[in-house]
Design goal:
The complex is a heterodimer. Chain A is mainly α. Helices cover 82% and strands 0% of the residues of chain A. Chain B has one domain. The chains are: A mainly alpha, B mainly alpha. At the A-B interface, helix 3 of A face helix 2 and helix 5 of B.
Chain lengths: 83, 156
């Protein structure tokens, strides 16, 4: 029962955090939202019984990608410009 | 790129050994439990990236050069392919697991259920080689990125 609830709630949270990452104008906050999405995605991989993929996703997606994105934001501009 | 505050440096220094030991554990148990060379290497590279961001790229550039990271990555790739070619020499075919079943290190035969760490033949050696390559490669990407940004800040 609890597992079914998690199976429904986690994809909704992943979609919400992905939407937040698109909508935010502050790119640093957007990078943190992408990291949260990666962490929830690794949790989803774990409850779908793929622990191998979950470790890789947590390491690469949640940590290294965020570090590279934050360094790139430091080298450019923080706020997104209106087109 | 300068380092962060003393709080961030202290917390990064405390959590760094745990992250690295967990990553090395995942690499060393790659033939028994979920994970392996790539996954453990990504975890270790995450810990190194944490230290790089906390202490800044100027401090990190005094400790390691990108040339050394490139060398380590090549050592990992050459080690992997050397073990594979030793399979031709001792076992007859490419990637042959010639160590398993002998008295050498990692020579035991893995059985069903809870297996000993001292099993698996060439698989742990290949996991170590892939782990070294992934640590050097993924940390090299972040390190080069930080160096490029610090050079841009200096010129600006």
């Amino acid at each position: 029962m609890i597992l079914e609830a998690i199976h429904i709630i986690l994809p909704i949270l992943i979609i919400i955090s992905a939407g937040i990452a698109i909508l935010l104008k502050d790119l640093l906050a957007s990078a943190v939202a992408v990291a949260a999405m990666s962490l929830l995605l690794s949790l989803e991989f774990y409850i779908l019984q793929a622990p191998d993929v979950a470790i890789a996703e947590a390491g690469v997606g949640a940590c290294l990608t965020t570090a590279i994105l934050i360094l790139a934001i430091k080298g450019t501009k923080r706020m997104e410009e209106e087109v | 790129m300068n380092g962060m505050t003393k709080i961030v440096k202290t917390i990064a220094g405390i959590s760094f050994p745990f992250i690295v030991i967990y990553g090395l554990y995942v690499i060393a148990h790659g033939h028994l439990t979920p994970g392996g060379g790539f996954q453990g290497g990504a975890v270790v590279a995450s810990g190194l990236a944490l230290i790089l961001v906390a202490y800044g790229s100027k401090w990190a550039a005094t400790k390691i050069k990108e040339h050394d990271l490139s060398l380590l990555e090549s050592v990992g790739a050459i080690g992997f392919i050397t073990v594979a070619f030793f399979g031709i020499l001792f076992g007859g075919v490419f990637f042959s697991n010639f160590i398993v079943g002998t008295d050498l290190l990692f020579g035991g035969i893995p059985l069903a259920g809870a297996a000993d760490i001292n099993t698996g033949g060439t698989l742990p050696l290949m996991n170590f080689a892939v782990g070294l390559k992934v640590i050097a490669g993924l940390f090299g990407i972040v390190f080069i990125m930080a160096l490029a940004i610090s050079k841009k800040e200096e010129s600006a």
